[in-house]
Amino acid sequence: MILFCPPGVYRAQSDTELLGGRLARHAAGRDVLDLGTGTGALALAAWREGAASVTAVDLSRRCVAATRLNCLLHGAPARVHRGDLFEPVAERRFGMIVANPPYVPSETAVLPRHTPGRSWDAGPDGRAILDRICDGAADHLEPGGVVLIVHSQVCGPEETVERLERTGLAADVVERARIPFGPVMRSRATLLEKRGLIEPGDRLEELVVVEGRRG
Question: Fewest beta carbons within 10 Å, which of 5, 21, 77, 150?
Answer without folding.
Answer: 77
